[in-house]
Every structure is written in C-alpha cells, then in structure tokens.
TrEMBL record:
InterPro entries: PorP/SprF_Bacteroidetes (IPR019861). Keywords: Signal. It comes from the Bacteria. Residues 1-19 form the signal peptide. This is Type IX secretion system PorP/SprF family membrane protein. It comes from Algoriphagus chordae. It holds the Pfam family PorP_SprF.
Amino acid sequence: MRKYFTLTALLFLCLAVSAQDIQYSQFYAAPLYLNPAMTGASEMTRFGVNYRNQWPSLDQSFRAYSAYADHYIFSANSGVGLIVNRSEQSMANLSMTEIGATYSYRMRLGSKSFLRVGGQVSYMTRDSYFGDMVFGSQINGQTGDIEDYSGEKLGDDISHQFMDYSFGMMYNNDNIWFGFAAHHLTQPTISFLEDLDSKLPLKLSAQGGIRFDLSGGSAVQYLHKTENTRELTLAFNYKNQGGFQQLDIGAQVNLQPLVLGLWYRGIPVTKAELTNHESIIGVLGVSLGNGLDVGYSHDFTLSSLGNANTGGANEVSVRYSFLATKKRGAGRKTSMPCFRY
C-alpha cells in the first residue's frame, strides 16, 4: 500500500512538474541558469557543470544536467556566456534540452555598488517516447489485459521545438546582493499536439544574500583563497511558476578549503506538499586550488513522499575559473560577492 501511494504520488508530481523548470539545490553553483544578469559576475573566465538525480531509490526518477561557460570583457563592462540544460523524467519518457546564449552589462552605481542587467535567448526542444507507455484506453475493463492500440494519435517518438527568452537584474556591493529574473517571457507553446495549447509558464524568481567576514581578512584574500579565509553567507532563492512557489533559504560557512552548508526548501508557513518538494539540504564543498571548486549536496525529503521511499536527491557541481588575461583587471578583486563554488 505504501509503495502504491509513492508511485501514485510520483505520477501526480510528474504531471504537475512536466512544464516546470529544473531546480538545483546548489542554485548559486548554476549562476547563468539562476539569473542571466550573473553572466560574467565573477569577472573572470568560468566553466561549470551541474548534475542532479532526484528520487534515486525509485524505479522512475528525475535527472538534470547543466553546463555553462562565461567570460567578462573588462573593456565593455559586459559578460557573455553559453549554457546547455537538459532534464529527463523517466516515468513519462519526457526530456527537455535547452541551448542558450546569455549577456549582461555592468553599471557602476557608487564606489562599491553595481547593477547588472542581463538577457538570454535559447533554442529548446521537448522530446518524448510513448512506445512504452500504457494509456487507459488500452486496458480491457473486463479482463484487465493490455491491448496493443491505445487510440492516442501520438506515435512512438515525438518532439517539439521553440525559442525562449529570459531577462534578469542583479544589484550588489562588496557583501550584499539581490536579484530578480523572469524566464519564459513569451510563454511558448510546449504541447506535442497541435490542437492543445499548453504553454511553458512564466517563471519569476528573486534571490539574494549577505556575506559576513569572520576572519578580518580582506576580499582580496578571499578571492585568492588564503588559508585565513573564514566567512558566513546567508542567502535565499524564491521561485514562482505556473501556480507553484518554492523558497530555498539557508547558510554556508567557508572554512578554507572546506565549505559547509545547511538549507531549507519549502514555504515555512504552509503545509508540506508534493509540489513544494519540501526538504532539508546538506552541502559539502571543497576548493581544490588553481580555481577548481567542487560541491556535493543531498536533499532529505520532508514531504509525504518521504526520504526513505525516494532516496531524496543527490547533486554535484564543478566549477573552474581563471583570469584569461593579465593586461587589464589582473590582481583586482571581483565586484560580485559570489559563493566559493
């Protein structure tokens, strides 16, 4: 009975989030995906990958992959980037692939405060394989046998392509940042059927944080990873899409070369629901030196699905950053108080 409930809940959630975006617990480790205004925010050249496996204990799970690269152009106060995202829902044989280009422009508001404005243009494709799926019309009501013909005019393999556009803004000084992003501005149609007008819902998000120096060291020491770096960072990420909302809020302590974090996902004033994926998230990160940072996190499910049934979620992020040129900006600190990985 418990297994039946879990599978039923999984089917419900699969249908509910089929038009929802990827969610990363380490959202700060996917900066271009989080907000296009963060393109070039490190003011270095940066490469990164992200992987998430949600509900690994179940036969059917959700997987997400991302890769990105960005570069800051000092002479133009601009950041340029490329991003690739892919999500897979094995229960419904659904996948979504996105290839996008991002751009941001940095404006100085004061001696230590900046405003970044960014945008993203993406080509997206949504694919599904219906050959292994069983529809209600295939089940014989008297014998329970599964018939060969479902009556659904979908075919085995089906895909749909469309363009997508996003916009974002980010304010920051040495220790504080706050941003806003709007994804899927045109709400493109994502339906596989021509007579069904199903759209990708607009996603609105707000994110921010504050960093406290616990060591007395300077931001330059922080950037160059000196052994005395000790910092506490508090941050949040709020998302609203298609009638669903979600809040990630938590803290991380940077004890070079280690980073330890604890996060809460959900809406604290509401009851735990499947659609909120409510969970507690533990994070462990390490700086390996020479600009290479690695992070691992695990989601401990609090919703009615239960962590023992689903296995929660595992997530890995890897980032490599460096200064591509020493001619200009060499030795300067970044104006954006980014996370360590």
